[in-house]
Structures are given as C-alpha cells and as structure tokens.
User: Fold these one by one.
Assistant:
Number 1:
Amino acid sequence: MKKFAVIAMLMVAVFVTGCAGQSDSESSIHVFNWGNYINPDVVQMFEEEYGITVIYSTFESNESMYTTIAMGGNVYDVLFPSDYMIYRMIQEELLRPINFDNVPNISHVSERFMGLEFDPQNRYSAPYKWGTLGILYNTTMVNSVIDSWEALWNPDYANLIFMYNSERDSMAVALKLLGYSLNSTNEDEINRARDLLIEQRPLVRAYVTDVVKDLMIAGEAALAVVYSGDAVFTMMHNPDLNYVIPREGSNLWVDAMVVPHNANNPEGAEAFINFMLRPEIAAMNTNFIGYTTANATALEMGLIDPALMEMPGFDITDEEYRRLEVFIDLGEFRDVYTRAFTTVLGS
Amino acid sequence: MKSKALAYPYIIWMIIFTVIPILLIVHYSFTVTTGNVTSFTLDNLARFFDPLYVNILRRSIVLAAQATGICLLLGYPVSYILAQKEFRDRNILLFLFVVPMWMNFLIRTYAWLTILGTNGVLNSVLTFFGLPPMQLLFNDGAVLLGLVYTFLPFMILPIYVSIQKIDQSLIEGAQDLGANGFNVFRRIILPLSLPGVVSGLTMVFMPAVATFVVSNLLGGGQFILIGNLIEQQFLLVGNWNFGSALALILMVLIVLCNVLLSFLNKETKEEAI
C-alpha cells in the first residue's frame, strides 16, 4: 500500500511538474514566500544584476508551506518561514546549512535577531522581517488605557473584539495574561488558558485572520489581536487606530530566509539571500510592505520611510524587547494546543 | 470497440483524480506513521467519536440541512415559474442566475462582508432611515445566508430542467379530466419533478455540509464546521491521518444520504406510475 501511495504521488507529481515546465536549474531559482511580502521591483533588479531568473510563488501559512516541502512535490531554492517552523524544519532535516561565506551581508542584521532559540548558531537562516503580536485599537471606541491583554476580557467591549484565528497566537494571549510562557508544555496551564478563552468567547465578535485589516480599517471593532506589520498597514489607512504591546509581554516573531535540503541551485539561493540583505534592498522591501526589516544598517542609514518609523510598534525599545518571547515548535505537544483551541471554537 | 477506446482518457482521468485519491484517503484513515513505520490502526476513526467532534459534525449537518431546505423553498417556485411556457423573459432570468457563477466564489463571499458589516451597505441603509444598526455578520444566520446564496442555482437548474421535460399532454389530459390547478400540480407536476428535486437536494447538501470558506469568512471562525476541521487537520495541524478519517466519515455520510434519497425517488416514481 505504501509503495502504491508513493507511485501514485509520483504520477501526480510528474504530471504537475510536466505541466509547469522545467527550466534550467543553473540560471533560475524557485522562491517560495508569503503573499504580498516583497517589493516586486527587487526581484526584477536581482534578475537583471545576476542573470538568474526568479520563479516566484507564494504561500499563506507556515503550515501549508511546510506540507508542500515535506511532501516533496515541488522543489524550491529559497523559503521564508517563521521562527518556530524553521526550528521544526531543522529538526526534521528539511533545511540545508547556508554557506555564509557567500552571504557577507548577514553582518547588517541586528544582533537582536541573531542566535535566537530556533536557530541558535544561525547556521540555517538569515532574518528577513520581524514583528510582534499586540492589540490594535480604535482610539474613538475605547474609554480606557489599553496596555494589557485584560482589555480583551473587558465586558465594555463585548462584540467589539476580534481575536486571531490561530491556535498558537490566541493561546499566547491567554497564557501571557495568566503569566505563563507562551511555549508552555504544562497541561494545567494550557487548560487554564483554554478556560480563559472560553470565558472570553461571548465577548468576541469573530476569530479572523487576514480580513482583520479591512475590518479594523472600516471601524468594525474596537480591539483586535494583530501582528505589528498588519497594524502598521491599518494605521496608515485609518488614523484612529493605535497599536500596543501589552505589558504582560507578547510574542516576537522573525521570518527568515532558508534553503531547503533538496534545493537545485543553492548558490543561486545564497546570491539571492545576500542580495535581499543589502541595506538598500531591505529598505525597499520594508517601505513597500510595511513590515519592519531585521536589517539594522538600513535603519541606521535612514533609508526607511519616516512615516513608517513613526508608527507605533514599527520599532521596539530594549525594555519592550525583553518582554517578548519567540515561539518554539512543541513537537508532539502541538496536539494539546490544537485540541484546546478546537474546544474553544467548537464549544 | 471504437466507443470503448474513446472512453479510455476518461477512465485514466477518473483513476488518477478520483479512484487513487479516495484510496489514499482510505489508506491514511486506517494507518498511523511513527518514524518510518506505518501500521494499521482504528484510532483515527475512534478519535472522531469524541463529543467535541461529533458536535461539530451535528452542527454542520443541521446547518447544511437548513440551507438545503431554504434553497428548496426558494428554488422550487422560481423553477416552476421559469418552466412556464408563457414566461417570456426566461432566458434573461436564467442568465441572471448563472452570471454570478462566472465570478470567483471567494470574491462573491467576500462581498457579503462589506454588505453585512456594522458600517456596511445594509446597515447604512438602516441608519439612513433612523433605524438602529444590526449585528448581521459573524453568526449562524450569516453563514446560512452565504450558503443559500452560493448554492441556490444548483437547486433551481435541475428542478427547472425536470419540470420543463414534463410532457404537456399529461397536464392537458389531467385538465380535460377535470383536475383543477392545485390537483394538476399535486398529481402530475410535483411527482414528475421529483428527480430534479432529488438531484437539487444532493447538489446543495453535499457541498454545503463540507464548506469551510463560508463559515470562515461569514461565521468569523466561531462556527467551526466539519469542513473547517478537515482543513485544519491538513493545512495547520498536518495530521493527514485524522484529517482523512474525518473526510472518510463525511463521505460515508454523504453516500448514505444519496442512497436514502435515490430510494425515496424510486418509491415516489413507482407510486406515480
């Protein structure tokens, strides 16, 4: 049966790749990135300078990207996963160490994002963008100071709260409010966080993902749990919005560039990564998409749009940085989180 | 022999895209992989019988049944009117039913967000007339509306076709024998249109029970349905075994519904004759 499954998958894979048309692997690289996460001009500039064709495709979640890579149907040269997913892919030997002799521009990356828990020696990843998880609020709709996750349990805001429909992020909110680590593997702590979220449910208008941006711009709710990059985007469109990292602490996330183990053109991938780490290129990307770059030089050189620099949450202080925690992949314990969050939504 | 050869591409297509995927789902449902060892297990299926998941399935069925019922109530009269000989603007109306299907389903569903929102189109109209705005989005009703909106054409078209096919002489005969309008409908048109109704019911119920896009967008993630659960297992959790088991359970359920409906269809057909 196993063999049969493999043969069947191969048949489908051959069929699909056959349709896509293989191009010469030496002069092209396959890049797999989040949707709307790059300045398209940058890709063109790279192609012109290096004579390497970039075949660009996008994914919408770390997990769907992981499934694509782990099942091995398509071959990519550069991926842009987040921290915990990089950790998981390193554990499962899906990544290839980067030869940093070919990536000297790694020196521009801020110390803050080097040597984090997901890749302690920085052998596999080159940080791209980073951000935090926090509360986006509409200043015309709140009547108190928003500086704590507790605001999301305030009955005054019943039906005016958007939560983020992602188990790790929603559980992180509850775990942090209870004073626990957002990587907790203690079942009692998880259960208490789950109960807190169930208690919150009547106040929540909806559990949303990307649509939260449009909804908050339209003034549909007073409070929403969002990523700082999305917050910056919405604040650009609606001046009534503000963003805060709650005092209990929150999540710091880092999206980094990595090379999968089966890359066809690792040298091309490294050239691309090095190119992306140039301060001017990093600034072009940040100015275009609004997410903060991990490139310290780009910030120091003043290459970033001043309007972005002024946005709350675009950059953080050292004090805020110390309150943040990076997500770690929990291995088998993931199931406990999934079940807890399914119970919250299914109750 | 010639006609057989023509069927081969179709057979190959079916094997690659229908038979093999179904076999894979069955395979995943009954196995678990630890390390490199894949072994037989019933745990995936057993895991479903947790009240948490059973409840989600029950909710999906109720919601899909409600949507199907509403589609039938709305769709039957429309099909009946469409099929009338003297109805002259039929093509325009049919065209209007089909046109939205040219647009991407996701965009059509997304549009409801702006229509139903607190500051949306509908509430702007309400507040214009001095009425208080209503919470229209992110509840069961919004999901139901989305389902009915999406699947109504799938109810109308088969019923329309089956009514249109009815031999006019049967109706005339009944009228000659003194049946009034109501009796003609009850004794002739309704029984003869039942095959259309049955295929309409299945064409609405099946995709409605498995939907995850509508419940995600219009339900605001609070109304997790069996489709969302399957999506979650495949895309987020990465547990293909449990996801496949859920898909298998849903497939068995749909097959059972189909058998029941076709049985019903046969009964009524025999009765009518």
Number 2:
Amino acid sequence: MSAYSAIGKSIPGVDSAQKARGEASYISDVRLSGMLHGKILRSPFPHAKILNIDVSAAKKLPGVKAVITAADTPCIHFCINPAWANKMPLQEDKVRFIGDEVAAVAALSEEAAQDALELIRVDYEELPALFDIDEALAPGASLIHKEEGNISFSFAREFGDVDKAFGEAHLVVEDEFETQPAAHFCMEPRGCVASWDGSKLTVWSTTQTPHPMRYELAQTLEVPVNRIKIIDKFVGGGFGSRMGIDSIDIVSSILAMKTGRPVRIVNTREEELETSRCRYPMKIKLKTGCRKDGRLIAREGFVQTDNGAYNGHGIAITGNACAKMVQLYSIPNVRYEGRVVYTNKLWGGAFRGYGGPQAHFAMESQMDMIAEGLGMDPLELRLINANKTGQTSAAGNVFVSCGLGECIEKAAAEVGYQKRDELPANRGVGFSSMIHGGGGVKYFYGQNTNYSDALIKLNNGGKADLLIGSTDHGQGAYTILAQIAAEELGIEAKEINVVSGDTDATPPCLGLWGSRQTFVAGNAVRNAAADAKSALLEAVADRLEASPEELEIKDGSVSVKEHPENRITFEDAVRYSYEIKGRPLAGRGYYDDPNSQPPDPNTGYGNTCPTYTFACHAVEVEVNPETGEVRVLKLAAAHDVGRAINPLMVEGQIEGGAAQGLGFGLMEELVWDYGRVITGSAIDYKIPSSQDVPDIVPIIVESIDPYGPFGAKGVGEPGLVPTAPAIANAVYNAVGVRIKSRPITPEKVLAALKSK
Amino acid sequence: MEYARPATVEEACSLLALHGEGARVIAGGVALSILLKQRLVEPDILVDIEGIHSLRYISDDANELRIGALCKHREFEKNPLVRDKFPWLSRAAERIGCVQVRNAGTVGGSLCHADPASDLAPPLIAAGAEATLRNSQGERKVLLENFFIDYYQTSLSEDEILTEIRLPRLSARTGVSYEKYAMREGDMATIGAAALVTLDDDKQRCIEAGIVLGAVGPTPIRVKEAEEALRGRAVNESSLRKAAAAAMEASSPLSDSSGSEQYKREMVGVMTRRAVSRALQAAS
C-alpha cells in the first residue's frame, strides 16, 4: 500500500477530456475581430547581399494594410544567449540561407498577403554559398559572419591526464560518426497572433517558454515587460523548437503595432520544414581506451557542429554533446574539443536531447566495438563502467540518484538479449544506454538560474487553484504538477484547477525545456502547496484545539495526528479560515536548485544539473538482405525517472520519445540541394507513422532522487536519446555491418552488406 | 474560382465542354486539393463529380470486371467480388496511403491524376485493363497502357471524363502480383512492380507475361524486354535474372530522399523478381 494518495497514480490528464472533445484552443483557433493575415518574404538565395527592397507595388495592392522591412523594426538581434546573437527578425543587408526573413506583409486575407509578397522587389547580389562544414572551413572560403574561418565558437576541455591514460590502455578504439539534421515536425506548426491596443501587446503563441518570451519580446520591441502579455494554454508539440522567440513573433507584433489590428502568422508545413530550426548535424571523432578488464580509462572526442546560418543553441548544444562523453560512464581521463561552424543553411535550435542523441550515437556504437575488440559481452562492459548513485564524474557531475545498471539489465532481458545468438538469420538484438539532465541546467540566457515559481489559492467553496508560469506542450505537465500539489495538500488532483497560459496572471517560470518541469516546477509547486497548507493549519488549529504542528491533512480532512477522530473536512477548514478568521488562503513557492552551478569558466568543472536521468533501450531488428530495410520488431525502453508521479504519463513520454528516436535512427533527415530544402513536405520528410512503430515496452525504474519532488526526475527528453544507437548495434548483431552515419537507411545498409 | 456539382455525366461533360482548359474535374480531391493549395493548379471552375452516383459501382459482367470511376480505394480493397476473383487488385489497393486516404480517393481520380507512383496503374496495365472516356459526343475506349502520356498527363481531352475501368477475366493458370517498395508504410511507391504470368497446361512454361513498373519514369512503364525474357520459357533463376535486368534497364528513377538513382534501380530488380515470383506462385 503506497504511502501516497495522489502521486504514483495513473490518472488521466487533467486536460485530456477537453482535448479529446476538441475544446482545447490552439493557435489556428485564434480568430479575432478585424484580424489581419501576415506573411513573410524569404530569401531565395543561400547567401546574398540585399542591395535594395522596393515595397511600393505591394503596398498598393488592395487589401494590404502594412508592408515592413528591417527599417521598420528596432533591428535588435535575438538569441537564446544575447552574447551570441546575430540574427535579426528581418534581415537588413544580407541573407544567409534560403528562407531567411527579408520583409513581411499584413493583409485582409492570406491570399492577398501572399499576392503582395510576390510584388515586393528585392535586388540581391549573390555571394558564394557554403553548404557543409568542410566547405566553410576551407582556406579562402567566403565569410558568412565576421568570425574568421566561419568558426562561430570553439572550445577544449581536459579532465585528468588523457595522454598518460591512453599510454596505459590495453585497447584503443577510434572512429568517426555523423548525425543528420532533423526536424521537430510538431503537429501544430509554429504560429503567433499579436494584438496591440495602443498601450498593451497581447500575443497568442505556440511558445514553450512564455515568461522568457515575454522578456525577449520586450527586449527586441523595446516595450516594457508589463505591457506585453503572452497567452499559450495549449501547445501542440514543442520538442525544443518553441524555446525562445523567432522572427514571426517579432514580425507579427510589429505588424500589429503598425496597423492597430490583430495580425496572425502561422507557418505552413512547408515553411515549418524550411525555417523551423532543426537538430544540429554533427561530425564526431571519438577515441576511447580501456584496460584489459574492460574499465574505460581514457576518452577523447572532437565534435564539429554545422551551426547553419546564425547562432541559436549551437554553442550550448555542442558543449552538452561533449559533456556526455565524460558523464555516461565513469571515465577518469577525458578530453574533448568542440567547434561550431557557420554554413548557408537553416540554423539549428533546441531539440529533445540537446546534443545528447548525437553524442550517444557515437559513444554507444563505439561501446559495442570496444566490447568486440576485448572479446567481452557488451552488456557486461557497460555494467562495469556504469555510474552508480553517489559517484562524481571527472567533470564534477554528482550522481545523486542513478538507476543505469537496473535499466540496462531490465531492457536487455525484455528483448531476450541473453538468447540473441539463437535468433534466425538476419535478426539481431542491440541496446544502448544514455544519460541526460533530469531537471534543467544552471544556464539560461547566459544566466546562473534554473527557477520556477508557483502560487496556490485555497478557495472558500471549492478546493484549490494552482497558478504556474509554464505551459504544457502535450507532455502532461499540468497533470503532474496538479498531482504534486494534491499530494502535499492531502486532496485529489482533480480538485485542483490549473491556471496557466497567461503571463499577466501567472508567476515567473523559465518554461519547458531541459526535462525540468517535473523536477524544478514540481519542487516549486510542492513548496507553494506546503506554504498554503501551513497557512491553513495555522488558521484552523484553534478550531481543533491543537497546535498547527500537531495537525495533518489526509484524504480531504484536517485532523489531529494523534487523535484522527478529531477532524474537520478540508472544505470546512478553509471555510473556517475565510469566514470566521477572516483569513484568505494562498501559498507561494519557488525553486532554484541549490546544488548545481555553471561550469567553471577556466576548467569546465562543475555540477551543471541538479540531477541526472538514465535509460537503456534494447531492440530486436530484422534486416532484409535484398533491400537493406531494417524493421524494428520490438523495443524495450527502461528509464530511471526517480519516481513516476503518473506512470501512465511517464509511459506516454517514453513511448513518444522512442518513436521519435526510431525516426531519427531509420528515416528522418532534412536534405538540402544547394541550400534549398528538398524534404519540404510530409511526403518527403519521413517521420514514422503508427504503422512503422513496433511494440514498445516502457519499463519504469525508480531510483528515488533525494532532491526531486517526492523523488521524481524529468523524463521529457531521454525517450529518444538511446534509440538510434540501439538500432545500429542491433543491425550489427543481425548482419555484421556497422553504420556510422544516421539515419540508418536501407540504402546505407545494402551498400555496407555489399562491401562486407 | 467557381464550383459546380453536376448530378449526371452529361451535365459534367457539358460543363467541361463549356469551360475548356479552365475547368478541372475533382472527385475525392486527395491529389487536387494539395495542388490547389500550393497554387500549382488554378482553374476557373472546379467540376465536382462526386455527386454522380451512377459512377460508383463494381460489377462482374460477361467475363469482365467493371469498375465505376468514382469507386473508392477502400471499396476496391474490401469488395468481396474483387477480393475473391482479383485478390491481387485488392492487395494493391490496400497499399495506397492510409485508411483516410483510401476512403476519400477514387480509382478514376488516381488514374487521371497520373502520378507515376500510382499503386493501381501497374497491376491494371499488366492485366490488360481498358478505360472508358466520355464526352458530350459519346465515348471511346483506350487501353490503360496507352492512357498515360507524361508526368501528370493523360490522353484525356479537356472535355472528357474517365467513367469506367474494365478488366478482362484472366485466362486459366494466370497469376498477377504487385510489389511496392517504400521506406514507410503508407508512403507513395518509391518502386512499384506488377507482373502477370500465364503458364501452359503443364505449368512448366510461361506462355504470357506482363511486367509494368511504377514510380520510376514519367509514366508507368511496360517492360516488353522483361516480358520477352519470360514468355515461352520456364520461369527459373536465369529467366528471372534476365527479366529483372531488363526492368532495371528500362527504368529511369530519380534520386531523392527515398534513395539514390542507383539504389532505386537496384530495387527495381528486386521488386520485379518478387512480383514475377509471386505471380508465378499464383498461377501454379
């Protein structure tokens, strides 16, 4: 019998019925009186100077209310970290990729706006364009920005003595891997409806980060924060792509301020694939040395990231990819180098896993190669090197809860790993581990913060309102946070009204990213609930003739711990406080993790995340030797989630992540031809459909984190991190070919089979 | 853009005659609605023939299967008559898109759209299907094999509507098969290959063969050289290899996100072999 009443229960989402009935409102549902439709004119060239823009014909078109260029904007660069910013909402003098924003129109209809775009004349002077890292780094290559050699940023770190350790290694394995650019493909395309009443800007958005977006809009529009309101109660998928603002948010706001009418811009699927900032493609060199007994003792990594045309998250994501090399296994000597290179292609953004999926593809593919080199079972090799609770990495990461070993054993057992040699021809089993931050990171906008705030009102005449400053993009944050509040208050989750999606009314929160809502917002909510609870117990203590410390709330009643028969209902207690004591009840709580810190600027040492989460995916595949097709027959996904606040939702997150990971592993890839995207539709950009996804068996491992709310850690991102390397390892086990570049397409497998 | 919804074929034909090239026929709208949204097609008038209920039937008539042009893919897939007597055809229909697409799309619409990746055209051509085209003056019949002219182009005149597909009853000891290669379930075909094989009385030699490829050229491609490699011979490794090689030779696939030209050509060989082997099985 669980000691908990509200958590650990697989209740349906607090908003599931609303969504199932089609009542949840998304950006396309926002239709305001007098609303105009905006469209953005984008560069047709991958790299060109803008010599002149003539908007006169477009302005004269009937139905057109405004046409803007950079000259109509404050020309302020924006970026997740202002120190790196080099992108403007509309480009002023130069365009750097096909799709780059040049001008915008607001008109009475989408058609009129589209027609107007065709009337804008832009004179360009084409410049040599660079489409991959090697081209961009070549001596004499044209410069995309001011930085020499087109290198946006580079860094190097060393922990321990790597050269010495390699010298002592029994086996050294060195390989190069490559990962692809990939699209988030949110079911709801990015959109924005902005409305300006002369003093206040109201913005309906698909953002994952409403409060940070409010701040960023204030900066880029030069309007104070208190005159901006962001509304985003429901978001149809984010996966990182809606972290921070984008040009359309700024452009629609400016168009609204110029016309005095609401302006709506919603991406088409084609625009989404052309301009929604993708997963960063990486080239990864990885060298690992181990002792004869399998202990990893040295590792060296070199990550080159294709940054695309502008600085987004590329620098931080490259850093995170490198950091995984020292975190996943206990390796005392690790050195890595990162290099972020501009090209004339779509710029990248945050994407579920934040560099982790790229790094793990290299690291976990190589683990199987090391095992083969040693003649050792790859499962045993991982267990020997897996981190354990209480360990600290060579870079200072403190693993306060770690269920990696259990994840590995359970996932492998689920797909029959021990009997994999008995499988028929062309079938094989493989697996992969992973590590990821489980509660955000002390680094946002270059600030030393990772906070959330929460407010709870206990209502006279009806349980509680929970006010939170983040949104829910489908992962279930509203439900999880309601369960945490309910547990603390001794009531039921369904009795909590979750208030969100309005930055005027909700407390500050850094938003949805870094798998941080359950951990960080969860702790804030728990603190707020505890605060409200103590106010209630204080108010009602005299009624129960006890001190507040002697009271508890359980199953909807306030009672004296030692004399449980001495009780009143929660409602009566609240009524007593309001009506007899004249004391309204509210609680406030915030959380900013005290145990983590940004890495030391000189050494890179530091415990960057408040906690870490672990997982292992194991798959069975069948390879068709005629076509090279890889079919995943079964996928077991074991995740250390600290504690499952809502097992149903945790399983949903794991399954969704694994399906996306399968897509990355086998088929998803953005492809450009001389800078023009050729995977610009749902036909050409291939995400797995329900028919391509095999049986997924989610396995929940609970390591009970000492700092998580009731022991919980985040599970938002990890679901897709280990899937692709697990598939790569299974393909090797099935047919003996090692595919080192993602996605593992039939064509690559067939070519490898032929050259075997 | 105007919109008309005639109730009879005659009415539809006179609208087409009146508006000429400014008119476009729409039925299920699966393909055309996308082209309209992308402004690739901008007609003056849409003639919606979905209301012409007389064009929605499947009947077994005097040794032939008659299929009304407005028959939905899903009906095709589920129809007991088709499943029983032309199982290869319902299997080909099953591979089209997803259930939603199959419930919306029509056989006639798919053929008139003339996307070379159509899943229905290759097996229908291999089995000798014939299309009936009507205009205000009357009707004409054209072998489906000759119906396709180029990417998205058919021999249909501006004032004509495809009203029916007729499929002759196959002779004894005949098997037909359609094989499709696509990276995902529900995708358009990357490679389509249909085969028809008729065996002699002793089931030793192939006396009639049909090989038709989809998605690897501007139209479905009937590969006569591959048919020659089988006709009059035993279907064995040697004739299969020759047929597959001829099919590869006849194909002209384009590199895209589903694979390079070279890989696709190789898959033409694999799919042709599979189709012929399956057809042979069905014929035996």
Number 3:
Amino acid sequence: MTTNAAIHSSLWGENSLPLRPASQVMKLERLGAYHQSRLSFMRTLVRRIFRERWKIEPSVFNLDNDGYGTVVYEVQAPHGLFSFVLFSDYLSPDERNDRVIATKWDLTMALVEGKVDQEYIEKLRENVPKQEAGRVDARVFVLSRANRSARNFDYVVNQLAAGEQPDVAKIVEVGYLYRTTAVYGSGKLGMADWEKVREKHQDFARPFAGEMFVCLMLRNFSLLQVEHIARHKTPDTFNPMKPEIKRYFGIGNSTGLGMAPYLVNHPLLINQWIEMRELALARVRVLGSVNQQVRETISQLIDRSAQHTLETLTEDEWQTNNNKAVIDDMTCLKSRIECGFDSWDELIEHSEQHCSLQGQEMLVSCMLEIYPELVDELEDFHSAEEFLDLDPLMPAGQLKDIIENRYDWALAIDFDAEGARETYWYRSEEKMEPRLGSVADIEGKKKQMALGVGYAVRKCYNQLIDYIAKNPDDTTARFMVAHPKLRGIVRRIQGMNRCVYGDIQANLLDREVLPMHLLRAKLAFFGVSKFDPRSRLWVRNTMFQGAPLLEEIGQTFNDDWFMPLAPKQ
Amino acid sequence: MNISMNELKAALRRCFEASDYFVGNYEDAANMVLWLEKHGLNGLSEFKLALPYIGEDKNKPLSNVIYEDSTSATIDAHHRSALNCIAAAVDLAHAKALESGIATVTVHNCHNRIFILKALTDRGRSGISAAAYWQNGTDSVTEHTAAIRSGQRYPSYSEGVTNLTSNENDKQALTIICSSRVDLTSSLQNSKSHFISPKQVESNKKHTVEHGIEIDADVWEEINKIGLGVLVENTERSRKDAGGN
C-alpha cells in the first residue's frame, strides 16, 4: 500500500518519476482526448463493491405489472448500511425531455444513509420525483433521475415477452435502457454536504463515488424492470435476458455545459486526478516489465480498443472522424508492437510521432490496464480540498517569475486579437443552467462567470510589472492591499504553483473554444464510453457498459470490462 | 428551513457577486459568513445586519495603508464591511509576522468585524498564531476577542458587555496581532463575558456537518433575490446557448 509521502516523492524532487510535462498534458485538446481507464471512478467503484462483496437486495418491491411503483434496495457495505430508493412513474412521450430544465421523468432516485421506514419513504415520495422543485434532508446524499430510451425500452420488453433476446446490433446503436439527465450530490436541494459524506461514510468517501453508485443501481434496476414487465406481459412465452447481453447494457448519460465550469472552479481536484493518472503512467513506463506475455496482452487490448471504437456509433462528423483516426492509430500501434519493443517509452514515442491525441491517450489507458499492482492503489488518492491559500510573504518578484514560468501559455495569447475574447460563460435564470454566449449580448457579458483564467493572469501580470517597477521589494501581501481586485487570481496562481500540473492551458474566452473537451475530460475520469456529441455543447455517452451484474457479486471477479465489446450472438 | 452548507455558500457567492464584490472577494465573503454559521457563531444573524449595506461597498474607496513600519500597519477601510476588506489586512499582518516574528495591524472604519474569524482561523492552518480585538456599539459597548494557536483548526472567541462609553476615535476599529514565534491566546478580563473554547467551536461544526443549517425563510429569500442579479434572462436565444435543440 502506498502513502502520501511515497506519492509526493514520486512527483517532486530528485527521486521523482519522469512525468509528462504540464505543457503537454494540460492542453485542452489532450484533456479532451482522454478515455476511460482502470483509475476511472466507475472501475474503482465496481472493484470495491465486488472485492468487498457488498450485499445489495430489495427490501421494498412494489411495482405494478407495467413496472410503475416504488423499489428500495438495502445496501450493506463494510462501513455502513444505505438505502437506494427509486420511484417509477408514468411519463407521456411528449413530456420526456433530457434537458436540465425538464420537470418530469420516468424514474427518480435517492441514495440515503441507513434504513428507511414507510414514513420516510412517503416523505421522499413527495419530494424526490420533483427533483429541483423538491427538498430533502441531510440523510440523502445523491439524487438523480432518468428517462427511458425511446428506441430500446419497449423493444427489449417485447423481445423478452416473446421469448426472444434483444438483437445485439441494436444495443450497439444505443447501449442502454435508461438515460440519466442529472445526478446531484454535494448538498444540493438540502442533501448532505460532501464534507459529511467524506467524514462519515467511508464507503463513498471518494469523489463522485455516491453519484456513480446511483448510476450503477439504475442500470441494475433497468434490467430488472424490463424483465419484470415482460414477465407480466406474457408469462407463458417470457424468457429472461442472457447474462452476456445484460452486461452489454449500460446507462445512458447526457452531459451539458454544467460540467465545464466545474473543472475551472475545482482546479486542485482536477489537478489531483491528473497527477494520479500521470503518476500511474510514469510508474508503468519505469517499473512495468515488458515480456512476451505483456506484448501479447497489449496487442489484445489495442485490438479490443479498435473494435470498441468501431462499435461506437455517432452522427457527429467531428467525432466520427476522431473515431476513424483512433482506429487507424490502433492499426499503426499494432504494427509497431509486432516489430517488437523492450520498453514502454518506445511505444509512447511512436504514438506521439504517428498517432492522433485520442490514439495516444488510448495507448495510455491500455498500458495502465496491464499493471493493476502499479496503478490501482492510486485510486485512494483522488481527493483534494480546494484550499487556494494566498502566500502573503512571497516577494512580488517571485510572483512575477511564477507567472512567467507556469503561465507562459497565457502570456503567449494575444487577447487583443479578433475573437480572443469573443466567448463568455453565463448562468441562465432558468435553473441557473450554464450557457455559452457571444459578446454581442451586452447583458450577458456584464454577468459572465469568471472562467477566463488565462486572461485574468495576463491582466494581473501587467499590473504586477508596473507595481514592481515602483516597489521592487514588496511582498504579495502589500501588492494585495494596493490591488485588492486581483486577490482571486493571485491566490489561484500561487495555489496552482504548488501542483505538478496546475491550470488547464486554454483560453476559454476564445471564439473557437470547444467546451466538448472539458466535458470529455471529466467524463473520462468518470469512466464513460461511446461519446456521441449532439452539438458542440452537449454529449451523450454510456456508463457501466460491460460492468459485471449485481447478481454476480460474490462470484469470481477479474475486473476486465475495459472498452467493452458487443457479445457474439 | 434547513439548507446545506454548499447551498448557503453558493447562494452567498451569487449574492456578493451581484453586489459587485470582485473575483476572489466574493468567495472570501461567502466563506466568512458560512464559517461563522457553520461553527455556531451566528454568521447569518450578523449577515442579516450587513445585508442592507453590502450593495453600498462598491461606491466606497478601496482600503489603503495610512501608516506602516516593519512590525505594524494601519489601514483605513473607509467604512467597508469586513467581508470585503479584512482578508487583505490579515494577510498583511501574516506577512509582517513572518518577517519580524510578531506584528500588529489596526484597521479603522471597518464594519461587521466578527467576520474576521474565518481569516484568523486560516492563519492557524498556515502555521501562524493570530488574535484580534475590537469594540462595538454606541449606547452599550461590547467587546470581542478571538485567537487561534499555530497549527490549530479552531479558534476561541469571547464577547462581553462593558461599562465603557463609546469613543469617537476608536469607532469601528479592529486590532490584529499575528506571530510566527509566539502562541497567542485571548480572553476578556471583563467579568460579564462569555468564552467559547476551540473545543466548543469544533463541536458546533460537527453538528452542522451532520444536520445542515437552519435559516429563516426570509433571509434565504433575500440572499437569493440579490443573487438573481448574476443570472441572465431566459430567452429562446439563451436556450440555444446551452446547446439545446
């Protein structure tokens, strides 16, 4: 088991491992090229559940023949007992809407500490289906909702009711029965704060563990529900779904702009996730032995990744081209592997010379897959508290040096160039949904969110230069008294300087900025697959596809659901 | 009604942002109010007193240093709320303490001074000991002190009613002492004072983390109402800005 001290010495100082530089890793386009890996939060959660053999069983099962009603699962984890409460309600097709602004859903869910009695279930019943329009208490720590897949749900019910299996080709097109449109935690709507979850509920004390768990439970319920409805529809002909096909069903997810400001507003947390991923890669490059078995395994993983990408269908031209490039990249890597290699650096260098960014990052994910002993323990180090403390004693001259060294990318941007400050981010009065506007709208510009880190650094630098010319020996504290409006950005510059990777290196105000990269980066850390952009501002994807089923808890578990493939039929 | 700490913080941030607090300050201000309330020190009651005035700070001059030497400074806050000026004053005391061992910063014309507790507490986490003292009121003068030792997470706080009459010269003044060498503690000599220990502050925090925050519906409504100022009106065009169909 590793420790904070061991991780620190691997990241900093003379004995540190050879990490990829921030100038390479923190480019927005590369972050937007990330894929799931064995450090992704879904993988981490499933490993924990299966290795610790959590007991997850329904304690209330009140569904009518059409699958509407209430279900409660009791979840016995090593450190506590939790209840997953789910309400299934009729929703007419014209009310089904994936946007955050929707007000009704097919399913609504809550993850609650402890057992729930009938009185508490009734209280939840009054509020959980309303989502943002309802209130819950601090026993609840995740809320979510989901809508049926119009293309799959009824089809699968009808197939099972007729004694047939769903056609795998259709699941390749849409790999889920439900699509979740929001998963809330961290104190929203009266729920428990993250501080409580982190300190009290060790089973969920990792970033987004509760949120991922709710999605996993939703996936489990969706499979149970289609069988339940089909069984009641035609009991004589009903046949349950084959396990290998069940495993290929995940949960759909729609993610919009709301996720993008999160990355900018939680820079220490995002840095921590990246540090762990890059540390894992550095460990593999230095410590991962390469032998014939390893060569065969990486070759198989490359094949699997290519096939998975081939089975990723999207109407989006940009993503289609990216996927084609990845498939070509995998062919290129396969050829290089067949020529033989003795160190991972050889393959990495080859990928950097010949592959797209998505191809390069796919290779990284494949490499991590081979060495659980070097990688998995880092999953316990994904948390970070967002303390961006000011260092008041730092000489103003040192602050200037930091900007020149760590934010050279920001100083290199010409913010006066046409389009460089064309985009702004704002919150709509409609559920405070984040939106992306153009400077043409004056009101929106006045109310824009402070996400232009690069531009703020540039403005700070200009004022700092003038200040130092007059006060060369002053401290940051004195500079702050003279320029209190710069407090936020100075604190950020100093705080991020304590990190290996620091800020995302992109001008988020640029007319050509692609928020999709931000969404993709965070979703990859979650562990999703099958990216299907619906515009440049929101993306559909699939969660938990290929994951083992809850009824398989307690059986052998080999943690091998990376880049899942369609089962043979 | 009951809300979470995160809800309060987010609503306060919008509220301060809409009141033209600048980036960095609106986060600080929200954290200062939340910190007091979370630790059982009536942050929302104090904030309710500040609420009618927070929109006025944008029209006041920025704080400036009116005297300074290696171990002390005097800052005029020009009748700003501590919510948007005190953090910089504590930073200055901190920097001087690191250079000289111990330092004093006095802030004049500063309102809502109890909000300094969050900034003081941050010094403890940074390995600096800090203390503050101020008097308040015109008819009945109260006095207040808070302190935190180096490396600690929770401060002590005392308040008491005095027999003093208000003095025009030290109205709205606050004295901050920081030291990197001496562990400072503070309590009032005043026999009519109430002392809250670091242990009690910690206990209050645990209760809030477990159960959330009770807030008057009217205060909650007012905070959110002011915060509406940062939201953009919903139009068909803005819906397209979210990428919707």
